[in-house]
């Protein structure tokens, strides 16, 4: 912030008399609207939108270099995370970009005072009526409706900027990002459906056989080997869980869950952090399945470590016009702005939301992913669910999966998920039973947007070489970032929702489970005076080479979709369960031996 506003002040003199740009306006970005969205009516010209104009980070390569050095356990800088200030310095837009965009805004009548107040770390945020945005971006906004859900959004499918501004603008929002985020908790069933095994005979590996039918905290402690581990409330290790889509974490349900599964945690709770005015209604009938699952297991597995629940509002921070429901802002950049501005965020954060990678504009996907890298460079481990549709698309019902590209050609293709496909996050697939088998819904595959990062070259190449020649040609991108990285249990999680015990499945369950285990590993490290683990992937793939038994390799199951059997879980890494599931005991020894 400091740098940016300093530059802005220095520039003031040269900008006051700037004339409107004479150059031609060319299309900066365009998309085909994602499937299911229908154009309803022109947006009212006086409808107010908050335009975010984000400028590129010219030194992202530098940031990435830092990220990989401090995340590489063999590098002398391992664990030496960058400060918030240093990240802001490396990530700030160039003076030339600030200058150019500022000039353009002045030419549209914004005065210096307004622009100074509107400047953000990565650009500007200005509130404009639709008519003004249409003029500036040479576009036409419409009210779009998502027919299946009735959601509406004011969007366009293309916008233009003066040619010389193209290199100086990363993205303008809202324009072409359609809301597509969804929760990965795919189904909940009432407990009487469960047939709990009555025999005790096959209690293998210290795991209660009941865990084949119902997953509790105790089951996860047994399966991942941390029954006897006692974290310390003041080690400094903390866990964060994110909530979107007005899914609320209910306190009363949390206490019911603790009474059922974790007596010693009774009366403890989480810190609620509201992002953009996000709420957390405590009306029991408004409790959200996703939020309850994340909070109950995320906190239940890590008690007494402090936990934070982020409730991010789906709307911008101004009062929406009454005519149009504005519950349609994109969520991640707002959340990222918030967390990146915080001096001391939790070192482990789990998110069980996502969308089809192909439905997000490339600029937006890259912008969000780069900001995840910034958090990684500050020492935050980010966990994301891999998705609940196997190799297929958003529709979890395999009989109606489209699996078609959204590029106008309708080509049949596996559809990777985002943010799962971002190389700077740790993506978690799903297993069930014991010994563990992949769940058929476990999302996995290869990004069409992000190339394969070098940390997973060996593991992924080894997998690809085992694939029968000619497998799924044209259905996936062999050179893309491959996911998941790890997996964990994801079926029959016993949670409380609206006062009732229910069972949930989805990679929504596996992401907070894996996150919790790494929050415990951070606890172990901090208590030895060692730094937290930060961005995990380079470490995880190294551990696979040097200590293969630190992960329980999952070698059975596959993730069908798009009319295929999907990929197979195999020995080593695979695009169903990643490197496998964590063995806490072994991982603890490894991470405590790394100085
Ligand atoms: C079954 O196992 C549980 C604990 O896992 C134990 O408390 C119980 O006594 C066992 N029942 C039988 C019949 O062995
Ligand atoms: C929780 O709080 C209630 C009400 O204050 C109290 O009666 C109860 O003893 C507490 N339970 C524990 C385990 O601390
Ligand atoms: C709780 O939420 C339900 C469902 O949204 C609503 O019908 C009810 O009026 C709410 N109760 C209170 C006390 O606000
Ligand atoms: C692609 O599919 C959509 C329906 O989902 C259809 O409206 C469109 O015409 C198709 N395009 C091509 C090129 O086949
Ligand atoms: C495959 O991935 C590479 C690397 O990310 C990318 O350059 C290429 O465009 C992708 N191909 C397709 C067909 O998506
Ligand atoms: C696939 O074909 C290549 C050369 O055509 C060969 O080297 C490789 O061993 C084959 N792989 C499998 C799994 O059959
Ligand atoms: C998965 O395994 C089955 C059975 O061994 C085999 O027929 C199939 O080709 C494999 N599929 C892939 C994508 O590896």
Task: List strands and helices in order, with pairings.
Blueprint: H1 2-15, E1 25-30, E2 37-42, E3 48-54, H2 60-70, H3 84-91, H4 95-107, H5 112-118, E4 119-120, E5 123-129, H6 130-137, E6 142-146, E7 152-155, E8 158-162, E9 171-173, E10 182-183, E11 187-190, H7 217-223, E12 239-243, H8 251-261, E13 271-275, H9 289-302, E14 307-312, H10 332-340, E15 348-351, E16 353-356, H11 362-377, E17 381-385, E18 417-418, E19 426-432, E20 437-438, E21 445-451, H12 457-466, E22 480-483, E23 486-489, E24 493-497, E25 500-505, H13 507-527, H14 537-546, E26 551-552, E27 581-582, H15 584-593
Parallel strand pairs: 12-14, 12-15, 13-14, 15-17, 17-19, 19-23
Antiparallel strand pairs: 1-8, 2-6, 3-5, 3-9, 4-5, 6-7, 10-16, 11-25, 16-18, 19-20, 21-22, 24-25, 26-27
Helix pairs in contact: 1-4, 2-11, 8-9, 9-13, 10-11, 13-15
The structure holds 2-acetamido-2-deoxy-beta-D-glucopyranose (7 copies).
CATH fold topology of the largest domain: Rossmann fold
Oligomer: single chain
**Regions with pLDDT < 50 over 5+ consecutive residues?**
1-21, 190-201, 315-325
- The level 1 CATH classification of the largest domain is Alpha Beta
Strand share of the residues? 15-25%
Estimated structural class: alpha+beta
Alpha plus pi helix count: 15
Total count of domains: 2
Helical content, roughly?
25-40%
Mean pLDDT: 89
Total number of strands: 27
Chemical compounds bound to the protein = 2-acetamido-2-deoxy-beta-D-glucopyranose
Sheet with the most strands, sense and barrel status: 8 strands, mixed
| Radius of gyration, CA atoms, in whole angstroms | 24 Å
Shape: globular
What is the assigned CATH homologous superfamily of the largest domain?
Answer: Peptidase S8/S53 domain
Distance between the termini: 34 Å
Named CATH architecture of the largest domain: 3-Layer(aba) Sandwich
